[in-house]
């Protein structure tokens, strides 16, 4: 009989799919790595179970314990798969800008969700980081995962996502494009890929309202760069330990509007119903297309599935309200 023993065994080995219509006028081969093929429909399944097992090994998480995390939604799902497998309770804090689909999905798989205000400083006691951190001190036998500074995050991508991309492209990849949230994906993949071939270009996709691009260019953490934006999962108002800026060749900023419109085009022109940050990554690549030649092989990480954004980028009323269409 052919079966796996648990849903978490289906994590990873996601497919690469060539983009055709949207990238028609780009001479390079553009391949999308569809992380929505993970069982929890996002790239964060990879780090969820891995960060739990790392905490167990370090004695930070014990039988019957509670896992706490601050998340834009996907990491909560990834962790929940691991928590279900291992019998832990899970609580997440989530900023109120995140899609209601993400909140309902987490509740559906038994996660307690605490919604926090988006428009507060990261060090404000009401921020989703602070509330999660505080809870750890109050709940006995609990573990705050902290995907931002927990280096098991980027190591997961160094050990799985990076090698998969190398193998799938037979080592021919020339450019990696990935949205940067915690920085785990881009840094872990870059650590592996640059070790194999230091000439591979690593392009990070950032949002307007995030500190990353300016910090990369100048080394200055400029609070004036921070304001709220609608794109979920990428851009930050902190510098997480998972980001290694020396491995990232360039940060490209993409507007909320350009990302949202490209997300809708991916569905209609490529048949790929992808998440909002996938559209941002493709839009960012197109902004950089002059730098590509016909022999280039570009891999774009597509972190999650469009079903999480049906009430947002795929909803005409929401798009009109944002003045995107
Ligand atoms: N896109 C989405 C939808 C995400 O949830 C995340 C994670 N915050 C990212 C992109 C960025 O991935 P990473 O945290 O590994 O930088």
Describe what this molecule looks like in 3D.
- By secondary structure, this protein is of the alpha/beta class.
- 36% of the residues lie in helices and 16% in strands.
- The protein contains 11 helices and 10 strands.
- The chain has helices spanning 44-57, 74-86, 100-108, 128-138, 152-159, 161-168, 184-196, 212-218, 256-270, 276-287, 316-321, and strands spanning 16-18, 29-34, 66-70, 89-95, 112-116, 142-144, 175-179, 201-207, 250-254, 297-302.
- The strands form 2 sheets. A 6-stranded mixed beta sheet has the order 1-2-10-7-8-9.
- β3 (66-70), α2 and β4 form a beta-alpha-beta unit.
- The longest helix is centred in the C-terminal third of the chain and has 15 residues, at 256-270.
- It is globular and about 55 Å long.
- The relative contact order is 0.16.
- 4'-deoxy-4'-aminopyridoxal-5'-phosphate binds next to α7.
- The site of 4'-deoxy-4'-aminopyridoxal-5'-phosphate has 17 residues, from α7.
């Amino acid at each position: 009989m052919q079966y796996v023993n648990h849903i978490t065994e289906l994590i990873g080995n996601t497919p690469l799919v060539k983009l055709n219509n949207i990238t028609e006028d780009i001479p390079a081969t553009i391949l999308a790595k569809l992380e929505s093929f993970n069982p929890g429909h996002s790239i964060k399944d990879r780090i969820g179970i891995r960060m739990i097992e790392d905490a167990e090994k370090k004695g930070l998480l014990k039988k019957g314990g509670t896992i706490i995390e601050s998340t834009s939604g996907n990491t909560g799902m990834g962790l929940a798969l691991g928590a279900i497998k291992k019998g832990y309770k899970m609580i997440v804090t989530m900023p109120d800008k995140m899609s209601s689909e993400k909140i309902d999905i987490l509740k559906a798989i038994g996660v307690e969700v605490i919604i926090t205000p988006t428009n507060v400083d990261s060090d404000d006691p009401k921020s989703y980081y602070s509330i999660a951190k505080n809870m750890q001190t109050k709940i006995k036998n609990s573990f705050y995962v902290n995907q931002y500074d927990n280096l098991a995050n980027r190591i997961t991508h160094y050990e799985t996502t990076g090698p998969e991309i190398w193998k799938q492209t037979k080592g021919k990849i020339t450019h990696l494009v990935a949205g940067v949230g915690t920085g785990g994906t881009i840094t872990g993949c870059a650590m592996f890929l640059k070790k194999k071939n230091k000439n591979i270009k690593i392009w990070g996709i950032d949002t307007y309202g995030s500190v990353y691009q300016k910090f990369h260019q100048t080394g200055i953490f400029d609070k004036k760069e921070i304001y709220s934006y609608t794109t979920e999962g990428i851009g930050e108002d902190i510098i997480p330990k998972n980001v290694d800026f020396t491995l990232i060749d360039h940060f490209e900023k993409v507007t909320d509007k350009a990302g949202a419109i490209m997300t809708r085009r991916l569905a209609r022109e490529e048949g790929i119903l992808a998440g909002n940050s996938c559209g941002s990554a493709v839009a960012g690549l197109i902004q950089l297309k002059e730098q590509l030649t016909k022999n280039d092989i570009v891999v774009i990480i597509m972190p999650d599935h469009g079903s999480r954004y049906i009430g947002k980028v795929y909803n005409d009323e929401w798009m009109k309200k944002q003045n995107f269409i």
